[in-house]
Amino acid sequence: MDASLPAPGRLIGGRYRLERAVAESPHQGVLWLASDTLAAEAPVALRQLPAGSDAEAVRALAGRLQGVLHPQVPRFGAVIEAEGRLWLVRDWQVGRTFAQLLEAPGEVLPGAAAEPGTSAPSAADTLQPVAALLPPPLLDMEQRIDQLFAGLNADALRFQEAYYSERRYLDSLDQRRCAAYEEIVAVPAA
């Protein structure tokens, strides 16, 4: 973690006491576990955004997120300016990360069903197809963009080839239809 991080125990916004830094990302800032001193020390997540974050855009996004009320989505709180940075507050959600679930060999997810006479699939077996759909880390963004454009170019070429093939086929049908009409018209009436 960054040596310039605030020390645990520091009070943010006059309300939230930092307990420990949980994760750090150059793009998303630092995620902290904190205690809400005005709500019986309830655990909260504080996201210390990177320096230079667009305060107006962050406030607009936070306003929209605060309107999301669902039992499976942690609630978002205020945007705080402290320590020269923006901080986002949300409910702390206890649980394991997706990566931890994938690494749990033989563990069965709650609610996983199995056919009679068989065992329920493990968490890793159940979640592996989902993991395959997730993008790789952002470190290889250029490579992913290149692959995307290569795929789009290949799709465009296939579409173009199919279009012209279909166009040639329709033209040949049209030519045969015209030739058949000409034969009918060219036949002298008896």
How would you write the strand order of the largest sheet? 1-2-3-4-6-5
- The total count of strands amounts to 6
Tally of distinct domains: 3
Q: Can you tell me the CATH topology of the largest domain?
A: Phosphorylase Kinase, domain 1
Q: How would you describe the shape?
A: rod-shaped
Order of helices and strands: EEEEHEEHHH
What's the CATH H-level superfamily name of the largest domain? Phosphorylase Kinase, domain 1
Fraction of residues in β-strands:
15-25%
Average predicted local confidence, pLDDT: 74
Outline the biggest β-sheet. Answer: 6 strands, antiparallel
Gap between N and C termini: 98 Å
Give the helix tally: 4
Which stretches of 5+ consecutive residues score pLDDT under 50?
none
CATH architecture of the largest domain: 2-Layer Sandwich
What portion of residues is helical?
25-40%
Structural class: alpha+beta
Radius of gyration: 30 Å
How would you characterize this protein structure?
- The protein has 190 residues and is an alpha+beta fold.
- It folds into three domains: 11-91, Phosphorylase Kinase, domain 1 (2-Layer Sandwich), CATH 3.30.200; 98-133, no CATH class; 139-186.
- The protein is built from four helices and six strands, in the order ββββαββααα.
- The chain has helices at residues 55-66, 98-102, 123-133, 141-186; strands at residues 11-12, 16-25, 29-36, 42-48, 76-82, 85-91.
- Strands 1-2-3-4-6-5 form a six-stranded antiparallel β-sheet.
- The longest helix is centred in the C-terminal third of the chain and has 46 residues, at 141-186.
- The chain starts with 10 loop residues before the first strand and ends with a helix.
